Amino acid sequence: MLALYQADVLSEEFTAGARSWLAATGRDEELLAFAKKLFDSTLLHMGDIDPLIEQAAQNWQLKRMAAVDRAVLRLAVCELHYLSETPPKVVINEAVEMAKRYSTAASGSFVNGILDKIHKDHQKSRKDETQKR
Q1: Residue 60 half-sphere exposure, CB side, CA atoms within 13 Å?
Q2: Residue 24 to residues 36, 61, 82, 115, 118: CA-CA distances in angstroms?
Q3: What would the pLDDT profile of 34-84 be if each residue is shown by its tens digit?
Q4: Three-state SS string across the chain, please?
Q5: At what angle do helices 29-56 and 107-132 cross, to 10 degrees?
Q6: If one looks up domain 2-132 in CATH, what number appears?
């Protein structure tokens, strides 16, 4: 989350060095591999992720959200939609805890509400696709 936050705030200047920073911060190879995969996947799919967040966050533009909240939301949505190894409840809970720890007092419930809506919409669309087949 911190790497994605810095990439958002510092833009392209930081993104190139983010993988090196991630490598320097971790000792657990499996965890480090997952962090890199999540970081890269989030950046790759940001064009699809950001509209989902804005749609779910009624009356909130992404650029007006706190940068930490944006980073947490982007990571969680990426994990929910593109990396299915972690159960959705765990992803949402971890995102809420990160928001509480690194952002404002209200960020936990803000992040929870948005992710819950995105997750429910995603489940509904997957169910609709299955029924069409």
Answers
A1: 18
A2: 12, 34, 25, 30, 33
A3: 888 898 899 999 999 999 999 999 888 899 999 999 999 999 999 999 998
A4: CHHHHHHHHHCHHHHHHHHHHHHHHCCCHHHHHHHHHHHHHHHHHHHHHHHHHHHHCCCCCHHHCCHHHHHHHHHHHHHHHHCCCCCHHHHHHHHHHHHHHHCCCCHHHHHHHHHHHHHHHHHHHHHHHHHHC
A5: 80
A6: 1.10.940.10
What tokens appear for 46 in the block? 């940001």
| Predicted TM-score (pTM) of this structure | 0.84
Q: What CA–CA distance (Å, rounded) separates 98 from 59?
A: 23
